[in-house]
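Protocol step 4 of 6.
Sequence for Tyrosine--tRNA ligase (Liquorilactobacillus nagelii) entered exactly as in the expression construct, tag removed. Do not edit the line below.
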Amino acid sequence: MDIIKELKWRGAINQMSDEEGLRRALSDKSVGLYCGVDPTGDSLHIGHLIPFMMLKRFQMAGHRAHILIGGGTGSIGDPSGKKAERVLQTMEQVHHNERCQTEQMQKLFGKDNITVVNNYDWLSKLDLLGFLRDYGKLFNINTMLNKEVISSRLEVGISFTEFTYQILQSLDFYHLYKHNDVQLQIGGADQWGNITAGIDMIHKLEGNKAQVFALTVPLMLKADGTKFGKTAGGAVWLDAKKTTPYEFYQFWLNQDDRDVIKYLKFFTFLDQTEIAELAEKVKTQPEKREAQRRLAEEVTEFVHGKEAVKQAERISKALFSGDVKQLTAVEIEQGFKKMPTVVVTAAKKNIVDWLVETEIEKSKRQAREDITNGAIYINGERTQDLEFEIDPTASFDGKFVIVRRGKKKYFLAEVK
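Step 5 output, structure tokens:
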């Protein structure tokens, strides 16, 4: 497998140092490579998937992938892509985030051809004088100032702490080159300056014959020019507690026709033939949204597993048809997370009184009218009896009552 050719077809390469040398290295042996992430939060989001999907492809091609959790650099703050100084986290928070991110990475990458390292293990052992004498001397201030990651911050200012981040990231590359036989670092487009600084450091310490390479992925933009991965509700997280698998599935399902093939190439492991077939269907049968459905299935399974895909599809089908009674309480919690929600007691009550007390209906007159007209559904069942008694504990493990008014207006009553 020519992985460079494959990555180019997928539109996954932005910049690459010494392409010819990297191709030779990849064809000669199993190459060690790494991608890093700083534990600035307790969960990764889909923006993090962009470089890590590339790392996963190298892993699947038989190369030795390394994930670097930046316990050390994360305590400092990466200036890349930031217009102002980061607020420093407590070390307790950093270590908590490290553990959470490590668990997520282990789930995504499994155990074959993968090593998870934490740069806190070596950066925390540096002493100031040793750092300045052994490594600070290797970096020319003028060169650092010309790197985009630094130059973009000069007008608003940058602290010495964040200014040194580039040196620390270079140290990571050097450490992994020496101790883990890592030759390639990959990252986002904004990491090019930091990665090439690491190559320069290795060449100064080990000589120009040292075989080390840089590879970055493009900035991911949507067809409308906005940045990929952001929604009206904020980031799309990989943690199921922050973004439910159903919400995650829906995010991919709702992608624009203009973007879906690009995302299939980048975020799935489907081959060229299948993606070409889906591209044709986008052109000829866009209303069926088969490409979007395939994208949602593939990425959701990769992040959350097959059962999460089945759950998301059941919830989607139930909401579309109105037949919600077959859903589990867990699925209700996912699918109705953003629906109008009220809190009710477990007490049984007449339907008219209950609808008014929950403010689902504005008045008893309106409630009676909607009930008799067949516009009210309780837990998926049309209810036209004005004497009907609602039992909040009767369905969904006694946790929820689902009310549908009309064709699409849903309300969730949470039993407390």
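Step 6, annotate. Residues 228-320 form a domain with the Tyrosyl-Transfer RNA Synthetase fold (CATH 1.10.240.10).
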